[in-house]
Specification:
Strand content: 15-25%
CATH topology: Rossmann fold
Shape: globular
CATH architecture: 3-Layer(aba) Sandwich
Distance between the termini: 15 Å
Helix content: 40-55%
Structural class: alpha/beta
Number of strands: 9
Bound molecules: guanosine-5'-monophosphate
CATH class: Alpha Beta
Number of helices: 7
Strand order of the largest sheet: 2-7-1-8-9
Number of domains: 1
Order of helices and strands: EHEEEHEEHEHEHHEH
Largest sheet: 5 strands, parallel
Length: 195
C-alpha cells in the first residue's frame, strides 16, 4: 500500500456485527492485511484454522506469552486471544495497512504501544438487537450466549475510549463509514508528512 501505513483496530460487543463489517472492509480494501489472532477457544463449525483464527491449546498460548510473542493478549469470555507482534510489526514496516479485530482490553493495549493506531468501536442499534443477533447466528451454546450478553453493557461503556464510534444500524452504510474514516486518517497522515 502507501508509505504511510495505518494500524486499524475494530472492537465492539459480541453480536455487534464487527466480524461481518471487517470481512466487507477486507473485500473493499484487498491490500489491507488482516492479522489472524491466536485463540484457545474451540473452533465453531464454520471456522477454519489459520483463516479465522490460529487455534491453540492453553499450554501453547502460555508459551507465546512467556516468549513475549504477543503485541497484546487478553482473556475474553473465558478464553484467551492474542495478536502476534511479528505479524503487525513486519507488515507495518513493509508499508502495509493492518486491521485488528480485538476486544476492548486489546484495543487499549494496542493504543499504548501504537498511539497512532485508529480505534473504531462498532455500536449495535440496541441491546435487544444484540441479543437477537447472538442467538440468531446459532454458533454458541446457552451458557456462552449468556456470558457474552452479560458483558455487553460494560463493553458499550468503553466506546468513549475509541477514536470513532460507528453505528451498525444498516451494514452497507456502516461499511461506507468505515471506508470514509480510513481514507480520512490516511490523508491526515499524508498531510502531516508533507506529501
Ligand atoms: P469470538 O470468540 O466471538 O471470535 O471473539 C471474542 C472476542 O475476542 C471478540 O470481541 C473479538 O474481537 C476478540 N478478539 C479476537 N481476537 C482477539 C485478539 O487477538 N486479542 C484480543 N484482545 N481480542 C480478540
Amino acid at each position: 500500500m502507501s508509505a504511510q501505513p495505518i494500524l486499524i483496530v475494530v472492537s465492539g460487543p459480541s453480536g455487534s456485527g464487527k466480524g461481518t463489517l471487517c470481512q466487507m472492509l477486507r473485500k473493499a480494501l484487498p491490500d489491507l492485511v488482516y492479522s489472524i489472532s491466536l485463540t484457545t477457544r474451540h473452533p465453531r463449525s464454520n471456522e477454519k484454522n489459520g483463516v479465522d483464527y490460529i487455534f491453540v491449546s492453553r499450554q501453547d498460548f502460555q508459551k507465546h506469552i512467556e516468549a513475549g510473542d504477543f503485541l497484546e493478549w487478553a482473556e475474553v469470555y473465558g478464553n484467551y486471544y492474542g495478536t502476534l507482534r511479528s505479524t503487525v510489526e513486519e507488515n507495518l514496516l513493509a508499508g502495509k495497512d493492518v486491521l485488528l479485530e480485538l476486544d476492548i482490553q486489546g484495543g487499549q493495549q494496542v493504543k499504548r504501544v501504537f498511539p497512532d493506531a485508529v480505534l473504531i468501536f462498532i455500536m449495535p442499534p440496541s441491546l435487544d438487537e444484540l441479543s437477537k443477533r447472538i442467538i440468531g447466528r446459532g454458533t454458541d451454546d446457552a451458557k456462552t450466549i449468556n456470558m457474552r450478553l452479560s458483558c455487553a453493557p460494560d463493553e458499550l461503556l468503553a466506546a468513549k475510549k475509541y477514536d470513532y464510534v460507528v453505528n451498525n444500524d444498516v451494514i452497507e452504510r456502516a461499511v461506507q463509514e468505515l471506508l470514509t474514516i480510513i481514507r480520512r486518517e490516511k490523508s491526515i497522515r499524508e498531510q502531516d508528512k508533507g506529501v
